[in-house]
Amino acid sequence: MTQMQTNVDDIHRQIEQYAVTSKEELEQYRQRFIGRKGVVTELFESLKTVAPEDRRAVGQQLNGLKTRAQERFDEFTQLLDEQPDSSPAPVDLTLPTAPSLTGTQHPLTIVRQRIIQIFERIGFTVADGPEIDSDWYNFGALNFPLNHPARDMQDTFFVQKNGNEASPDDMVLRTHTSNVQIRLMEQQRNADTFRPIRAIMPGRVYRNETISARAHCMFHQVEGIYIDRNVGFKDLKDTLYHFVKEMFEPGTRIRFRPSYFPFTEPSAEIDISCQICGGKGCNICKHSGWVEIAGSGMVDPQVLLNCGIDPEEFTGFAFGMGIERITQLKYRVNDLRLYTENDVRFLNQF
Ligand code: DAH
Fold this sequence. Notes:
This protein has two domains: 3-82; 107-132 and 173-347, 2-Layer Sandwich (BirA Bifunctional Protein, domain 2), CATH 3.30.930.10. The protein has helices at 3-17, 23-34, 39-45, 52-82, 107-121, 135-138, 178-186, 233-247, 301-306, 323-331, 344-347; strands at 125-126, 132-134, 158-160, 171-173, 197-206, 218-228, 254-261, 264-273, 290-299, 315-322. Helix content is 36%, strand content 19%. It is α+β, with helices and mostly antiparallel strands. 3,4-dihydroxyphenylalanine binds at residues 176, 178, 223, 261, 264, 295-297, 318-320. 3,4-dihydroxyphenylalanine (DAH) binds at residues 176, 178, 223, 261, 264, 295-297, 318-320.
């Protein structure tokens, strides 16, 4: 047997016995048996040293070896492809960094800011007041009778109660933002000359309610007030017509429905045509085609007196609306709890 024959047999054996378990080993195999510096190439190069009459036969053997080396390579490759890769993925430093998630604005924030924007453009300022306030600011000055149900512990969170009877010094979590209108009007008491008040007052309010899809113990309102000489009901209507036109879909209708509040006279509730069904009737508007968005009215002379403003000389209107309600209509939010659950699947939509 020639040396060449021995070498060929030897390499055949090596190839058959070879096993690879990783890409690195496969590459080692490739370099050793297939690569241009591998043993098979080497044998091809030494073909010229073989006697000319044997070259043909040896050449055929070498070709067989080469084919077999390639076949094994293909087998190994397939085997590795089928195996799950346990080696850690190589780090590609050229990849862009993972995007950092930016937050979105809460829908109530978006709507509150839009409300502020609409009113600021027509000359309203923005005012703020305490969320924990006395019975006087939350109820008394606003003309709530002593036995009014809102003064009941069932309806209102009392922080401090001075006995069974209502007292102006009882402390409550405010049930509406109307406490701020009293504080604004009161500031006039010590002023030399009356300065007209035209302000909106957004903020949190609290009521003793069981949390459900339709009620929450904490929600948001925007109060509005305009006090000056010769402010009439027409001004109230104009202002709220303007607000609805700016806030809601074009073509939204508005109606004033007579109502009652202890602190306004006359009083009206404001309905708009349902944004969900367009006024045809659905379960959001309880099939009436209308939804209530605000309470309003001319400030009761007694309330002006309570704040030291002369009702013979000054008049004004006030209104109050729920931000959750307006957001619900604008974005079709069907469950109040979504606003406070911090579910990113909800929040990401805004
Ligand atoms: N304070 C009322 C409420 O919480 C809303 C309201 C109604 C505010 C009429 C007003 C108003 O200023 O004039 O339901």
